[in-house]
Amino acid sequence: MRLVCPACRGFREGVFSSTELDADFACPRCDTHWPALAVGHVRVPVLWGDPELGHRTAHATRDLLANLQDIDGWLAGTNDLQRTELATALATYAPAHWGPYAVPALPVTDLAWVREWAPASADLPEGPVLVLGCGPGGELPYLDLPDRELVALDANLALVGYAAALAAGKAVRLPWRRLPSRIESRPLDLPPHVRHVLARTRLVCGDALDPPFAPESFAAVVALNLLDSVQDPALLLGQCEALLAPGGVLLLASPYHWQDAVTPPQHQLDRVLPADVPQQQAMEQLVVGPGGLLPEMRLERSADGIVWEVAVHARFSARYLLHVMRLRKSAATI
Ligand SMILES: C[S@@+](CC[C@H](N)C(=O)[O-])C[C@H]1O[C@@H](n2cnc3c(N)ncnc32)[C@H](O)[C@@H]1O
After folding, report:
1. Between β-strands 218-224 and 182-187, what pairing exists: parallel, antiparallel or unpaired?
2. Does the CB atom of residue 228 touch ligand 1 within 6 A?
């Protein structure tokens, strides 16, 4: 899998071109030197936004990962917004993904349905599998196709950095909230097969709306609970389609829990759906119906109402109902 520079790709004299980054995540064309977070032997490049800010985020994330035992102490006495945002995201998604392996275990939603919906390797074209919005990596063991390279991307470096710490085999504690205002931590004991999947995954911090990969370079793209977490969901769908090789599979799941602060109202897909058609059906038409958002894709399978629960703290969980779609790109590019 090639990483391409998101800063300088585009059309030149009518031809689309992009440049592959070198082994140190530098671009030979525009000379952007992208930062990276090193955790043990694992390096996570930060391939979006301002590289200067990326360096500062990498620094703060390294610091956070070194202070998992006492995140509240790390946050105390500072009003550093970046620290708070990194710690808050981690204390929400790390237990949602890795709670079963905490000692003692924390309950989470069963993700076994993901394994059942993942495409079989024999049904895919050549190429790696990409997980967009991977958070701290908890869905990766359910998507493990042993003969495929696995690539996982998230915009939040604290989350993907946590996955890197697990991949590097570090003794990592699991942050979680017993009280709304207190982040505690528990030891985490991952089984060897889970560590193995993480260790063989290429982890990237990047923007799914501007992904640092070449078009048509993936056999499958997976985006679970990402659509309503981005600014422009229609653009995200278009990027997923563009990243897929002909015949490739897109696995999407979303509760369509639009929030104005995340997705501006004019980009929320529900706004353009007919009111008299069930939401699941209307969304499927919007995506793959005549004149739909993804002209090269057809729907293979869908289901509505799959439960996904995220504990905010020990006494409060958000329970979402997911609409899941598995789509396939036409084998011949049109
Ligand atoms: C609701 S969480 C879902 C995480 C995980 N897929 C799951 O189902 O538990 C959304 C994730 O998308 C990430 N995210 C939000 N906007 C993104 C973007 N533009 N590019 C990549 N990741 C993004 C967040 O950092 C977060 O990890």
Report:
1. unpaired
2. no
